[in-house]
């Protein structure tokens, strides 16, 4: 079994967060400057080496590596996880039937519903201590699953260092963070927090669109960040508030966005504000840590095939995990959809690149005749009065009928203009009703919820 200081320290993070800022700064700076290899153990160095060497390797090496790691997962799942042993037998397959990359399609898929129904039979503590995690996604209640205590954090930290380097980021570069936990202390008129371990300055997403923004901006300016890292919606809110108060863009080297879908107009707006020479890195991943990908500016998404195996099935990312010897994922339906060009390993549906990752299967609207309209289509913006709109959320519980919540930028919104713009984007099949609201609530961690879809999109897709 592996060991790392980080895995132990991580268990006490809530205690650390409650410490006075001066003590956090002292302890966090010391800990943040300890070499990664010491904090995360030798696994960190091994994973970072793996990602870098894989990228430089020839095609045959890559295909062999993906095949062998996938086979390793299949064998472990079949021999150690009761659910998979029965699941494979039920579908007439075994790990020994996996002879080529294309054979992965012979193995049955699993969904979050399967995990909810069979959790107790889907993990083991034979190799490493399981740690519980939760993800929300398209389900109304969070899904619980398990990761290995030591391996998972070392691997994911190496993955983060590897991918963020694509935009020039080096670990502990000064970074303005617009995502994650809430840090405001309204009674003290404080809406930010310095995190010394990673050298981040958090700004409160909950107060981004308030009259406290000038105070927050001044803190960001004093911090002199080299990078901005946040949800796309939070970065766009920061830009909108700068414009509202006439504040100049920060002098930064790059922008990193993650955890939400990002659309072409978002890229254009970020570059228009911070400068065309400022690169934007979009990082794709999910809480289950099955597969990962990145894109620089508006190029294709590049899957990190040394992290996990991504298949594209009916335009959905279906992933098989590597290195999770607690709760392996085999053909896990992520619920994330792709569009545009798709580049595969030869003779398989295992993806190397895709043009767009559009987000969850639930981020679709359904027409009256049950056609699916991607939210990507709705984010073009060219037909909407964007000068009036700060934020939009779509809500649907019946085919062909969608309520559009609009958060006003100016205090006034021309509803008919919005409806006319929506109809131009969709063409036909949906009746829109617009409601102007003071504020559209975000998730507990500050993510925008662009679509609250009450229909079963997967069921509708299967009919087509």
Q: Any descriptors?
A:
464 residues, alpha/beta, Rossmann fold, GMP Synthetase, Chain A, domain 3, 2 domains, 12-stranded mixed sheet, 33% helix
Descriptive notes:
With 464 residues, the chain is of the alpha/beta class. It folds into two domains: 1-168 and 253-360, Rossmann fold, CATH 3.40.50; 364-463, GMP Synthetase, Chain A, domain 3, CATH 3.30.300. The chain has 15 helices and 20 strands. It has helices spanning 5-10, 13-17, 21-32, 36-39, 42-56, 59-80, 82-90, 112-118, 149-164, 213-223, 232-244, 264-274, 375-378, 415-426, 457-463, and strands spanning 130-135, 143-148, 175-178, 192-195, 200-203, 227-230, 254-258, 279-284, 293-296, 301-303, 308-313, 316-321, 332-344, 351-360, 364-366, 372-374, 389-398, 401-408, 431-437, 451-453. It has a twelve-stranded mixed β-sheet, with helices on both faces. β1 (130-135) and β2 form a beta hairpin. α11 crosses α12. The chain is globular. The protein starts with a helix and ends with a helix. Residues 137-141 have low confidence and may be disordered.
Provide a concise account of the structure shown.
This protein is α/β, with parallel strands linked by helices and 464 residues long.
List the helices and strands and how they pair.
Layout: H1 5-10, H2 13-17, H3 21-32, H4 36-39, H5 42-56, H6 59-80, H7 82-90, H8 112-118, E1 130-135, E2 143-148, H9 149-164, E3 175-178, E4 192-195, E5 200-203, H10 213-223, E6 227-230, H11 232-244, E7 254-258, H12 264-274, E8 279-284, E9 293-296, E10 301-303, E11 308-313, E12 316-321, E13 332-344, E14 351-360, E15 364-366, E16 372-374, H13 375-378, E17 389-398, E18 401-408, H14 415-426, E19 431-437, E20 451-453, H15 457-463
Helix pairs in contact: 5-9, 6-7, 11-12
